[in-house]
Amino acid sequence: MRVVVTGGAGFIGSAVCRHFILDLGYDVVVVDKMTYAGNLASLAPVASSSRYAFERHDICDASAMAAIFAKYRPDAVVHLAAESHVDRSISGSDVFVKTNVLGTFTLLETARTYVASRRKGAGPDFRFIHVSTDEVYGSLGKEGLFTETTPYDPSSPYSATKAASDHLAKAWQRTYGLPVIVSNCSNNYGPYHFPEKLIPLIILNALERKPLPVYGDGSNVRDWLYVEDHARALGVILAKGHPGETYNIGGRNERKNIDVVRQICSWMDRLRPVNSSHHEHICFVTDRPGHDHRYAIDATKLETDLGWRAHETFETGIEKTVRWYLENAHWWQPLRDGVYGGERLGLVKA
Ligand code: NAD
In angstroms, what is the span from residue 165 Cα to ligand 1's centroid? Predict the structure, then answer.
């Protein structure tokens, strides 16, 4: 199996590459533009493998995408390349529309042309896995879960562009017969997470004895999935999923943001004790504009039809994550010093 992984130098993409190469023995071609979020250090565990190749390109570049498909003749694409941070989409939506919508369109068209040329040679079944988010479904109240049939209702420029790309992917399956599968996953966390996102930001701020900012009153709920569980889910969907289907991915780990932050503080108190408790540095800051209140995934279809289950609970996953950041300063320190130092993003100016 030879798989093109777009966005393979990002947080989830690099976990997918490590899983595919080291656990499944697949050949992987990473296609990545290397934005601020791309980091080759996240691919260090596979960089010397003969199964790994890297191509630095923008997915919006149609001729580069065609050349990559012609060069590698992949059996599948797992499409993760995207602008992924909601706060950045509030301050600058332009690149989100370009990469998430036009980039996905370019890749779908490239794959369509490629599959048409492959069919003449009667190759094995091609698969296009379009990796998306539960944020396309909008916000839940206190009750209920997102299923694969929940209507789309995105709130942020990020989730609106992901919703648009999901619609394109499904249309290319229905109209052109491109064997597309869409996955919608809940919030990921774990090693190699860029420190602009809540969990790594709080760990690193705690380590540096800085304020621990919580948006609004901290009551917003997210459904957390350990990133390696997501990578395994994508492996299962690639191997056993059915074209035209959508699979929701989630680990049944709903937590309020404030409880996530408190749990990190408790681990930091245990692993890096200082004079005062880390809990004392929690502060409440202006809420994110359009902040969805609650996300929660019903992953029954993926569990029942394809036999996937999350291995980590939030309790086991968050301990692993805190320990990983404490032991891997060589990975995050250059990002913290030179790429993003922890300043507030995504406030709308009057
Ligand atoms: P990330 O921001 O860590 O990584 C994105 C990667 O895409 C980076 O390596 C970046 O360099 C690359 N990229 C960006 N624009 C590109 C372009 N034009 N051409 C080629 N490469 C480009 O993101 P992530 O958190 O790993 O998310 C990966 C995918 O999973 C995204 O599609 C995201 O919407 C989806 N997703 C993320 C989460 C989550 O919690 N992080 C949850 C569900 C779904």
Answer: 13
Q: What is the pTM of this model?
A: 0.97
Is residue 324 situated within a structural domain?
no
Ligand 1 centroid, distance to 43 Cα (angstroms): 15
Count of domains observed in the chain: 1
Beta-ladder partners of 14: none
Average pLDDT along the chain, 350 residues, taken 10 residues at a time: 97 98 98 98 98 98 98 97 96 97 98 86 79 97 96 97 98 97 98 96 96 96 97 98 97 96 97 94 94 96 98 97 98 94 86
The Å distance, Cα 120 to ligand 1 centre, comes to 33
The CATH code of the domain that includes 190 is 3.40.50.720
Q: pLDDT (tens digit, 9 = 90+) per residue, 295-337?
A: 999 999 999 999 999 999 999 999 999 999 999 999 999 999 9
CA 93 to chain centre: 18
Q: How far apart are CA 179 and CA 311, in angstroms?
A: 29
Please state, in angstroms and rounded to a whole number, the distance separating the CA atoms of residues 265 and 274.
Answer: 11
DSSP H or E segment with residue 7:
none
Instruction: Look up the domain containing 54 and give its range.
Output: 2-194+223-255+294-312
* Ligand 1 pocket by Cβ (under 6 Å): 6-7, 9-13, 32-35, 37-38, 58-60, 80-84, 99, 103, 131-133, 162, 185, 187-188, 194
